[in-house]
Specification:
This protein is α+β, with helices and mostly antiparallel strands and 86 residues long. The chain is built from one helix and six strands; from the N terminus they run ββββββα. A hairpin with a 2-residue loop joins β5 and β6 (67-69). The longest helix is centred in the C-terminal third of the chain and has 13 residues, at 73-85. The chain is globular and about 40 Å long.
Length: 86
């Protein structure tokens, strides 16, 4: 499935510096459309643009101890976006 721009997603990236490698998982809005497994660009909540492998769309929130919430971040994201415009 092709996900459109502005879809809330999670990406995975590996940063290599000298002899050190670090994995990062980030959430953000798609800047470039893509499918799971594609290299995409996202815009994070703090405005940074990052590239990585698309892992999932509409990621769930896992607070721990077996609890899951299907999409609790959508309301928070919408609220934050409205307040940033003020």
């Amino acid at each position: 499935m092709l996900y459109k721009e502005n879809t809330w997603v999670r990406i995975h990236q590996i940063t290599t510096r000298a002899d050190n490698e670090a994995e990062t998982w980030l959430k953000g809005y798609l800047v470039t459309p893509g499918k799971i497994g594609d290299l995409v660009k996202v815009k994070t909540m703090d405005g940074r643009e990052e590239k990585g492998k698309l892992i999932e769309a509409y990621p769930e929130y896992f607070p721990g101890k077996g609890a899951t919430f299907s999409d609790p971040e959508s309301e928070t994201i919408e609220y934050n976006n409205k307040n940033r415009r003020l």
